[in-house]
Amino acid sequence: MKKIAMCFGAFDGLHAGHEDFFRQAKDFADELIVVVACDTTIVEITGDLPRNNEGHRVNCVGEHPLVDEARLGYLDDKYRIIEEVKPDVICLGHDQEVFTENLDAELARRGLSATVVRCEPFSPEIFKINYVDRDRDRDEEQNYQDTEYEERGLPL
Known about the structure:
By secondary structure, this protein is α/β, with parallel strands linked by helices.
């Protein structure tokens, strides 16, 4: 039986830090499933739209050679996808805090026995999201994004 690892994130523009995260997660299992946050979830957490829409981000993650499957997370129940997949290991990013505070208790409440591990940082001083740069870069794509998000009924 294959051992499954699962990790989560926005993955808004893949970089070497993400690849290192995938590599560490994959070391725990035979198969790596990566859950990509919905656009609306990112807006709820950060107050900002991602640079790339959720479909694009899922496709990019899914094409990565270390990733066996990329899935879009759920809006209603953030833990439901864990219940569906039943991973053996849940890998958290070195600085990942969102939806992790009560993760062990939530897993126990749902009768799940995944081991939760925290991955090591790659180069957080280089690859941590810099919101100033992110805002500057977003200006170039804003017209396209506004139209796309309005059509999908997402907040701007």
